[in-house]
């Protein structure tokens, strides 16, 4: 687990090649680099399919969006994917207003995001 004053990151590995990074707190200019770094580490460690569980995110600014785009590009370059799960309405609005929502798939729950990855017809 990684923890800063505004952000807590918790990892679990529900399937081969898949990681779920639960993000809690605020994703801002100070904390977004930690989320990005941890995500890229997971991908480098052989988990190219990453789900960001955002249910407990209280705030996200453009730094968080930029980190998500960077993670998406890195995952795709390694034949992986980035999915968002349980996205709070304030983050959904930010994704929609900026157009980032069309780039990154989102699911109502982590379980559904995982199903989309690991089942036939999913992103793997």
From TrEMBL:
Domain STAS: 16-117
GO molecular function: anti-sigma factor antagonist activity
Annotated NCBIfam families: ant_ant_sig
Family: Belongs to the anti-sigma-factor antagonist family.
Annotated protein name in UniProt: Anti-sigma factor antagonist
